[in-house]
């Protein structure tokens, strides 16, 4: 029997005891009722705490929320019954019907909050964000090596898990010295490898071999020690990272090199890429922080709405006879219904459709925006020029939005006018050269080349569609690959002596 199965078995024992005590309660004498109620209260409370702790890290939303909630409702019911026995005159709720309505509203509130939280959690744990969560292990390892407070950093790495909650709970991302990080990863030390074995390898869950325990390096020669490091190392090599981090070394190299086809990375390119990755890391933390802030607002609004709606039902209950109050409430609802409906529609669009998150890069009405903050009714965007604008969520929901960050890949179009005197053999050679270039690039998924339109009887329109492998919050990596592609394309147009006229955008030759 696994540990999980044992926990589930131990979890069912108190439940069976509760049911048994409830059966006994139906047949028990009245003088023992209070004792039985007290026992049920204690069992319900312990079950609630045990269930919440047991399923805290569970991926099943029903285990994390609904099972503990069942025991919470049982606890509320028993507490209500006990209060009714002890002080019936001071009890606000006069009937079990009110208690049932209260619990039903609470179930609806928790269901909505769980659905919204799960929706945002899934959005923030996909695509490049998932790689950032995994890359954080290696960044924390580098921070340990260069930090003076090693024990504190080790404790932070020990408590870190690959999820957005752990990423947020450890606080604002630690700064990283890029130069020292390059030296560390270009010549990995044995202490770095030992910390990886001790803190990281088991959490990533992908092992090259399962040795069970950490190997003792204390009496061995450190082949990667500081004394033997090459001070003139100018490259981070993929094979060295694989030696240090096993199969995860390949992931680390592809992340910091942005899927380059080469097996080594020079210091200049590393510093450029790493600075952008650290910006992505900081932006990811801000995105999680503002998303959690929005979720907390949803929970607060849920509690307020739950209380107000429940009290309103109690007041409007037919036995109270307050017909004037009923008329006033109905009239107010009729007046605010149109605006209330629009506001609810705008809020539900953000909370349930979740078209974007903070720091996403979107295209809205042919303009590119960065999402800076979100609320129930409006969203704050930033244009590339730095201009800040606020748009109502209802307005946004009426138009089409392209979310580059959430797309599997982004397509980029290059369009030229070439002379109709072009030799078809030269065009075929150009097509093969571009295909070979894109096939050898790990950053490009596919390319399509079309030459099937005549313009002004003297030109052909040459259209090239390049599809990237992935998207990023920062446009740096997109710009870098597009820049390299244009440099390559222009050089071969020149070598093949193909005359061209750019029509979509001005393209200057890169020297």
From TrEMBL:
GO biological process: monoatomic anion transport
Family in the record: Belongs to the MscS (TC 1.A.23) family.
Ranges that cross the membrane: 9-26, 32-53, 65-83, 95-116, 300-317, 323-340
One CC-aspect GO term: plasma membrane
Main location per the UniProt record: membrane
Protein name listed in UniProt: Mechanosensitive ion channel MscS domain-containing protein
Keyword Transmembrane applies: yes
Entries under SUPFAM superfamilies matching the protein: Sm-like ribonucleoproteins
Subcellular location: Membrane
A molecular function (GO) term: mechanosensitive monoatomic ion channel activity
